[in-house]
Design a protein that fits this description.
The chain is globular, with a radius of gyration of 23 Å. The chain has a seven-stranded antiparallel sheet with strand order 2-1-5-6-7-4-3. It has six helices and seven strands; from the N terminus they run E-E-E-E-H-H-H-H-E-E-E-H-H. Strand 6 and strand 7 form a beta hairpin. By secondary structure, it is of the alpha+beta class. The chain has one domain.
């Protein structure tokens, strides 16, 4: 019997202008939990009472996942997984860390500019990172926290088991621009939320044990 295809979560890097896919990094195992925190943006305290109900923008949303990587099963079939036998999970960890490291070529270019006396007003724009957690949740994010705990090694000290903690801040259309690729993806994320919310059965005040409001 063939079960349903398991959809994996992961991160995708795309060109912020063209939307071309640059890199796809899937998680080996889906984390058991996804921690989400939404901090409302409201008018400053002490302002006019009419401002109390005004929301100044989308909430600041942060995410955190704890992912696990394990090469044990693959190493039991060396003929099918030669790269894993040779490197353990080095490649998977390097792919994830590539989301937060600048490219070596960019570092060398900046150093050459500095050495020549040139002034770079702003660093070049990097790729846009998307956190994908099902078709209904594709979010533009900035990776803000990254921690790796390597727990087991092979005879050559290649890591073969590790836990990775990734913290992210969701980037809004205000951060990325309403007319840019990333801003459009964020708005699609919000529209999906709005659509899902309409599927909740309507509730009356009787459900809350009251017949009306004071």
């Amino acid at each position: 019997m063939i079960g349903p295809r398991l959809v994996k979560g992961g991160l995708v890097q795309v060109d912020g202008g063209t939307g071309a896919i640059l890199r796809v990094v899937s998680l080996q195992y889906n984390p058991d939990s996804l921690a989400r925190n939404l901090k409302l943006q409201q008018s400053a305290e002490g302002s006019d009472v009419t401002e109390a109900l005004r929301i100044t923008g989308p909430p600041i949303e942060t995410l955190k996942i704890e992912a696990e990587f394990d090469a044990t099963d693959a190493m039991e079939k060396p003929e099918q997984h030669p790269a894993t036998v040779a490197l353990g999970i080095h490649s998977q960890l390097a792919a994830l860390e590539g989301l937060v490291h600048p490219r070596v070529d960019d570092l060398i270019r900046r150093d050459a500019l500095a050495a020549s006396g040139a002034i770079e007003i702003l660093p070049s724009r990097g790729p846009l990172t998307l956190f994908v957690w099902s078709a209904r949740r594709i979010l533009p994010v900035q990776v803000t926290e990254f921690a790796v705990t390597e727990e087991a090694f092979d005879a050559l000290l290649n890591p073969i088991r590790a836990k990775v903690s990734i913290g992210m801040r969701v980037l809004t259309a205000g951060d990325l621009g309403y007319d840019r690729r990333g801003g459009g993806i964020y708005l699609s994320y919000l529209r999906a939320k709005e659509s899902l919310s309409t599927r909740v059965s309507r509730t009356t005040l009787n459900t809350l044990g009251i017949g009306g409001l004071p």
